Structures are given as structure tokens and as C-alpha cells.
Amino acid sequence: MGGLTDFSYLPNHQLGYAIMINSGNFNALMRIQYLVREFQTHHFKSDLAFRPGTPGSAPKIDIKGYYMLINPRIQLTDYLQRITDIQHIWGNDKFVFHSGLFGGGVLTYKAINDHQFASKETGKIKMVKAKDPIAGDVLQADTLLLLRISPIIVFGQLGILGLWICYTAGSIIFGIVWLVNYSKGKPGAIKNRAIILWPVMASLAMIIATIMSSVGAKDPFELLGKPSYASVSLMVFTIAFALTTAMSLSSKFW
Predict the structure, then answer these.
(1) What is the model's pTM?
(2) I need a labelling partner for 184 at 20 to 30 A (CA). Which of 57, 104, 157, 247 fits?
(3) For residue range 149-169, what is the model confidence (pLDDT) as tens digits?
(4) What is the three-class DSSP state of 69?
(5) Residues 67, 150, 75, 167, CA torsion sign
(6) In angstroms, rounded to a whole number, what is the distance separating the alpha carbons of residues 58 and 90?
(7) 19-51: pLDDT as tens digits
(8) Burial level of 202, CB count in 10 A (0-12/13-18/19+)?
């Protein structure tokens, strides 16, 4: 279920198309896209920006750095993609390289000028510098819209995420140990059960909500787009996380 769309155009040739399908099958959309493009451009001369294997140095262009996606495919996970889907772009005197910060395939481009970059394999332009009306200077790499950000923000976000994971895991471990000791009549220095129980429940609620979000992402139209065990559980445990977090804070001050 669901739907996918694609809109592309060649203004210099006054050609373009709009494809809309009532299916979430991305492979089907790509197949239709390929057939339409082949039909519309079969009579064109080759538009290779350069011949693959052609020697030469790349123009000096300052695009190296870290980039985040600003056009999420699914808005629900945008907050997480801004941290986990960071892109890294670097280069040398001849080529520009592009890959995800956490690995994956490396794409190689050759700079044609100060704003166009062609694929090393095909010779066709695959990445361009552009001006977004809201974000400003960006890179358009196929369907990805990339905004350069400071390395401080990149690794600062990852550091905060790491601390949050450690805190969540630590609160659960500490809570379990405390409950075991409490059941044996050894509560330790902390005798107020609420100070221990509420943070543990908040951590558990967030973990379960994260798991349900991952499960729903496998089929978002069916599992998140309508009432299901994944969407209902995600709603319940997200609310539970907010309430238990508030209770854990109140138990420390009142």
C-alpha cells in the first residue's frame, strides 16, 4: 500500500515527466523511471561531462566536510537521521569521494567545474552545488539534499547520543541491582523507591518505543500508517516515557 512519485525535467530540451504509482514498491518506480527516461532521451547525443579514465586535475573546490540530510524520505525518523545518516565528503587532486559516516559504499566523482561533479564510472553529472531557498548552499547528490555542518555538531550529537545510551543502560542495570538488594532487605543508601523505579520505567519505555519504531519502519504504510500493534505500542510507550520521566523528576524534588 501507499504511493510513490517522481518528477524530473530537462529544461534545456523542454522534456520532463511526472510518475505517480499507488504502491510502495520502490523497485517498480525505478523500473518505470528508467523506461520513461530511455524513451524520452534515446535520440539525444551523449551528454557525458567527461570520458571515464580521462586524466587531469580537479578544480580547487571547498566542499570537503560533513553533511546532513535535509530532505527526509520519512519525516517520522528525521530527528534520528540527522545524527545517524551523516555524510562525509573528501577528496584529492583528482577526485571527490562521498560516503556515509558509518560506512557503506564510496561514490567517486570528478569535478567538472566549481559546481558540477560527474560520476567516475559513467562520466555523467551526478552531484551539483545548489542554492536552497531556505537552507542556503547545499549539495544535490541524486535524491539526497545535503547541508554542510560543523564537525563539532557532528561529533557533539554523537557524543550526546552515546551518553544517553549509557545513561539508559546504566539506569536499568542500577535499578535491577537495587531491586534485588531491596528484595533481600538491603536497600542501601537510597530508601525512596520512587527515585529508582521511575527512571528505570522511563528507560524501559523508551527502549520499547524505539524497538516498536524499528519494527514499524519495516512496513511503515501498514504498521505505522494505520492502527496496528506497532503504532499503538509506539504511542502508548512514548506517552509512558513522558509521564515516567516527569514522575522521576518530581520524585527527586518533592
Answers:
(1) 0.65
(2) 247
(3) 999 999 999 999 899 888 888
(4) strand
(5) positive
(6) 13
(7) 999 887 778 888 898 899 889 888 877 655 555
(8) buried
